[in-house]
UniProtKB/TrEMBL annotation:
Species this chain originates from: Trapa incisa
Protein name: Sphingomyelin synthase-like domain-containing protein
Membrane topology note: Multi-pass membrane protein
Residue stretches spanning the membrane: 66-86, 131-150, 284-310, 322-346, 400-423
Pfam families documented for this protein: PAP2_C
PANTHER family in the cross-refs: SPHINGOMYELIN SYNTHASE-RELATED PROTEIN 1, SPHINGOMYELIN SYNTHETASE
Main location, first listed in the record: membrane
Keywords of this entry: Lipid metabolism, Membrane, Sphingolipid metabolism, Transferase, Transmembrane, Transmembrane helix
This protein's record includes keyword Plastid: no
InterPro entries: Sphingomyelin_synth-like, Sphingomyelin_synth-like_dom
Signal peptide: none
Amino acid sequence: MRRAAPPRSGGLGLAAISYVAVDYLRHLSPTWHARLQPALWSVLALIAVSRVPFYRHWSAEFRSAIPFLASMVFMLLALLFEALSVRSVTAVLGLDWHRETHPLPDTGQWLLLALNEKLPQPLVNLLRARIIGLHHFLMLFMMLAFSVLFDSVEAPGLGLGARYMFTMAIGRLLRAVTFASTILPSARPWCAASRFSVPLHPHRWAQKYYVPYSSDFNSIRQVINLDMPYAGGGEYVEEHRPDWGPMSFLIDFLRPTASEESSWFGLLKKAGGGCNDLMYSGHVLVAALTAMAWTEAYGGFSSVAIWLLVLHSVQREVRERHHYSVDCIAAIYVGILLWKMTGFLWPPKNRERTKRLLRLEKIQSRLMQAAKDSDMAQVQKLLEEVELHSHESPRKGPAWVMWIFPSVTILTALTIVLLAFTWTSDG
């Protein structure tokens, strides 16, 4: 029988809700926010430090240190690749395309505008309120991971952190590949010009393969029939090409201008949130991963509250036109599926004990019969059989190897279907 989870005191949930509520005071009363936020963090820090001498799972934490550091490096590399892709999808078509291209029709945005006309104004104000943002979800996860000090969450905390960062890295890589494969017009047409300094005209690659066939349906029909570009090449404008040494191959992806930062890494640091890195939402992915971690590790009423905050964040992303509805919906189910897929990282399972229990369940009736017959030789034989089977390893490799590739394939296929549906709705 599965052992019931230990009862939760609710202290972690109250701390999380208090953190979100106190931080929201910055909009309601900056004075009280300046007083209460340092006090709250001081109290939480003192309570955590007071528990450190009584923590009993340091050996598990040390075993998880290497996976934690490896996951951190993996996540940083994924974020670097994502930053390069964010800049690239903005620069490749030039600022003129961003200014002139209309946003896609989004029924989710229409629904929210319709609700604004029907719902009571206080409720509309609540939906518009900036209650929670990306940094809140990251901090909520930090609180969850540190709650191992209070035995609120199964140790090790570094193992939970490793799973969170590893899952986020996979999600970020899939996201970068997805939005770079098809460039969606931003829901904010002015976004690119306000955030990036890139050439006004498209890259010569886009001028050859996209621009001549982008507006005339007869041209599109002809290029489909020929399956070859047929438009003649024009005169290309000479672009700024700084000396980046071995990294000069990035010039065609980043398209720097003479007025910008001369370092390629400096351009990537300034990329931040893009305008066309839409499918799927990175903010909602982080929110979904935090909610999944909280639900699995802690549960209770607070996990329901966090999922409600995720939904509030989603509707704000759509309402403020940072993303289309499909971007947020896709991010939620991708986050859920990825979190389930990376369960091999945490919590650590006592496989030997689990195997013994499973084997004991299988031979329970035979063991009881041997005990009734006072056949001690048979009892000893059955127990030796349990011990022997518990040390056998029927699998050739770790379970995640068998799941990661089909899972990634399925997620990629689903994302492509959503992209196709989005473009179809625009037609």
